[in-house]
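During the no-cost extension, the postdoctoral fellow (Dr. R.K.) reprocessed legacy sequence entries with the updated structure-token encoder. One reprocessed record is reproduced below for audit purposes.
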Amino acid sequence: MSRLSIILPAKNEAAALRDLLPRLRAAQPDAEVIVVDDGSTDDTVGLCGEHGVSCISSPYSMGNGAAIKRGARHATGEILVFMDGDGQHDPADVARLLGVLEQGYDMVVGARDWSSQAGVGRGLANTLYNWLATRMTGHKVDDLTSGFRAVRAERFREFLHLLPNGFSYPTTSTMAFFRSAYPVAYMPIKAAQRVGRSHIRPLRDGIRFLLIIFKIATLYSPLKLFAPAAVLFFGLGCLNYLWTFTHSGRLTNGSTLLWSAAVIIFLIGLVSEQITALTYRRDG
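Re-encoded structure tokens follow.
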């Protein structure tokens, strides 16, 4: 196996890191371990020093995705493993991820089962995301939002400019790999209950998770989102025309507006498809 870098984004996760770092060192003694301190106010920096782990500190919180990007730029390994710093992921599973990666994949994702989901609401949301991503890509997606994954560094760095600074980096990176025809595999894992409180707030982040659904579509194939919407508006226009013609024998503005909306939505989808193609184009 090529030189390995393990990257852990952490914001006030010292309580979990105190137990996780020794276990990670024992499981992967030759790996480069990097903790990206996302503006923590606890003893994360000092704890990393005690265990001989590299620590990249931010003066303020930039977000989980920003921490992932900073860690990926700093890492020297040809293989990158991302895992949460909250104690959910088992260091022993790193070797299993690497074993699957060696079978010819460019990304291997640790897929959580239902018992590993953080509550019923999160479980239902993740099930919806997985179903939608599977429909969009034509590939079975077992866990779209898992933060535990192994990737080839060269491939992953191609998409750093696409990754958001927030929590949806797993979604973006997975869809980018599928779009670019880089093979992705899923490996079942058991995730433990996190140490401490989650940084995700259902009310605050509800709209953001809703937007993830639309990002899934636009990242992979915008026409798969815009074309059905255009057909829907065209059909509504036809139904409205049939109703008004039957009852008053005329064409109304409502039907015209619905047909116009259908054309506009379809054209936006075409333009978006071209923009997406340019986004994933590799020059040279």
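The chain is about 50% helix and 15% strand. The mean pLDDT is 86. The remaining legacy entries will be reprocessed before the final report is submitted.
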